Amino acid sequence: MKGKRWIGFVALRYVTWGRKSSPSPVLSVLGIATGVLALTIIIAVMNGFQLGFIESILEISSCHIRLEGVPSGREAELGARLCSVPGVVSALPFEEVNVLLRGRQANLRGALLRGVPAEALELDPGLASKLDIEDGFFDIEDPGSIVLGAELARHLGVYVGDQVNLLSISGGIREEAEGGGQVYTLMGIFRSGFYEYDLGWGYVSLETAAGLSGNVDEEDNAEDDGKISPVFGIKLKNRWQDQQAINEIRKVLAESGFDGEMVSLVSWREYNRAFFGALRTEKLMMFFLVGLIFVVVALNIFQAQRRTVLERREEIGLLRALGASDTAVRLVFAWDGFIIGFTGAALGLAAGLLIALHIPAFFTFLETVVNFFVYIVNILSGHLPGHARANEFAVFSPRIFYIKEIPSRVIPHEVILIFLFGFFSALLAAWFASGKVSGTKPAEVLRYE
User: Fold this and answer.
1) Which of 192, 323, 442, 443 has the most CB atoms less than 10 A away?
2) Model confidence pLDDT, tens digit, residues 73-105
3) Residue 61: strand, helix, or coil
4) pTM (2 d.p.)
5) pLDDT tens by residue, 39-55
């Protein structure tokens, strides 16, 4: 048989007209589509949660690169030099101190205060994007002002304008403060979306933090000899280019006369290795477990194709008698797998992206449908004695989960990988199942027909 156009025609006929006794093509397409749909949505939601946590940690806490060990006195000059490094967005000095806070309520609450420049939100756009100021302003210019996380303020029972009693755990408490504590005015309340920061973090001016930690002379507020400058939190345009940025920063430090042995540069990969490694392992395991759907569907396609080869022995024998090679006949069934895999993966991907990009609306619709049936059940059971009224259903209830809405993040290369998994699982299953074609002998088949 000359030409190869007949291969696609025969394969399409087998798929569209179906087999003699089974709707396997339709079920196989639905199986692939379901797997791609489920994996696309699950990975998108997982990315939303994980990347939200990672970005909050990097933008608020650890930064992309931490620079420590620089002698004091040249912070302004060094900050300007660091910002001139290619790829660096900001270089914000900060200092941290552990404190005990007390508001209107008598109970104490431990917190970490981070001292930053008064114009921190202007200097660091990444920090500004993650701190949602719910009430008041991010105003720490006055030495007696403080900004607290929303959950911490709620726990202390304070609002903007209220007084907060502070006791440093790190030393440096002013002797004139009554009871060893200091009084600060709450100027703003922020929410980061990360519960740990909202419950245990606050911001003060850099000078205030230095005083609380004992780095400033109490009498004349002068710098102590040998005082170590604040840590520099460096943000990059692309956090994956951290090693390249570290090399460039070392060159800048060397040109500025800083001792390279005293200076410490730590990448975000090292600083958060355990946490980020756990998130990566969780994602890989979820990808693997949900991906088992493709294994089940591939086995179904494999068995269906093997059955098809047996059912169509007469047609295979006729094709072989007309001059079709073993490879050409196998390609008919491989094209079956191609059509099933591509159609199922395309349908699943389209539906998955549609839902993943509109996750809040999807879950709102799902909750509405479920709550409608809950409402019907409550009405029907209302006439029964001793019945218990069912509560409204919520996928991610705010009473349990610390989120306002369900996050979702679609990463293009992961979407392509999911599509290829679904496509090749069907294609390879069909190809291996068609191996029995080579054992079909035209003479024997046609002799008994």
Assistant:
1) 192
2) 666 777 888 888 888 999 988 988 889 998 876
3) helix
4) 0.73
5) 999 899 889 888 888 88
Integer angstrom CA distances of residue 209 from 45, 95, 392, 413: 38, 6, 47, 44
For residue 62, the 8-state DSSP code is I
- List residues bridging with 98 in a β-sheet: 112
Q: Cβ(218)–Cβ(201) under 8 Å? A: no
Cα Rg, the chain, nearest whole Å:
32
How many whole angstroms separate alpha carbon 272 and alpha carbon 411? 22
Residues 269-297 have pLDDT tens digits of 888 888 888 888 888 888 888 888 888 88
Q: What are phi and psi of 147, to 5 degrees?
A: -125, 130
Contact 215, 231 (CB under 8 A): no
For 252, phi then psi, to 5°, come to -65, -40
What is the C-alpha separation between 56 and 248, in angstroms, rounded? 25
Instruction: Please name the helix (run of DSSP H) or strand (run of DSSP E) that holds residue 148, with its range, or none.
Output: strand 145-149
Say which residue the tokens 């006195």 belong to: 73
Q: 């994007």: which residue's tokens?
A: 129
Of 231, 308, 242, residue with least CA distance to 70:
231
